[in-house]
Design brief:
By secondary structure, the protein is an alpha/beta fold. It has seven helices and five strands, in the order E-H-E-H-H-E-H-E-H-E-H-H. Strands 2-1-3-4-5 form a five-stranded parallel β-sheet, with helices on both faces. Helix 1 crosses helix 7. The longest helix has 22 residues. The chain starts with 5 loop residues before the first strand and ends with a helix.
């Protein structure tokens, strides 16, 4: 592992003007300020088919799923902003995680290895008052089951329609700092574990 923690930031949303994309970019700013090397992933640039074991058996892992697995392996920590759909994880994020958790060809022991021991910081934003916090419970459970180290620190930003300014930053300076701090926390823990 490198001495400079590598952080992968992404949101489980496809929407171009997603609140969660804006949110995770703020956390990424905090990680960069703390000395992390940050990569941002937009799943619209890495579209994966719906998980299907028959497809996997016939064609192997899709190229985009392998690309996602490689990205996960190359980073020590993940900043993940998770929209809440019907009180749970989005289909987009769950599908990406499901593909990435599959073993690579000719390496049956590689299932979920891209998640094991990785530092994860979760956050969410929603137009609702609770900010999508219910969905984070499910994301935390899934990633913990896969062996990730999901930090207890997390944030949910409610009333998202009013929470962001035109530049994609949070209007409330305390909220803005709290999200920046999440990024910095990911760097600090990754540096301790892998530095």
């Amino acid at each position: 592992m490198s001495s400079v923690p590598k952080i992968l930031a992404f949101a489980g949303s496809a929407r171009r003007d997603s609140y969660n994309k804006k949110l995770v970019k703020i956390a990424a700013q905090g990680a960069e300020k703390a000395g992390g090397e940050v990569s941002y992933l937009d799943f619209m640039n890495l579209v994966m088919p719906l998980f299907n074991e028959d497809l996997e058996a016939n064609q192997g892992l899709p190229v985009t799923a392998m690309q996602f697995k490689v990205l996960l392996k190359q980073h020590e920590a993940f900043l993940i902003a998770c929209p809440e759909y019907n009180g749970s994880i989005t289909a987009l994020l769950k599908n990406a995680i499901d593909w990435a958790s599959r073993p690579e060809p000719h390496n049956p022991n590689s299932a979920a290895e891209c998640f094991r021991g990785k530092v994860v910081v979760l956050m969410s934003s929603s137009p609702g008052a609770l900010g999508g916090i219910q969905g984070l419970v499910h994301v935390r459970t899934i990633l913990s089951r896969l062996g990730a180290i999901v930090l207890p620190e997390q944030r949910a930003v409610g009333n998202a329609v009013q929470a962001f300014n035109e530049q994609g930053q949070l209007v409330d300076p305390k909220q803005q700092q709290a999200i920046l701090d999440l990024g910095a926390r990911a760097v600090a823990i990754a540096a301790k574990l892998y530095g």
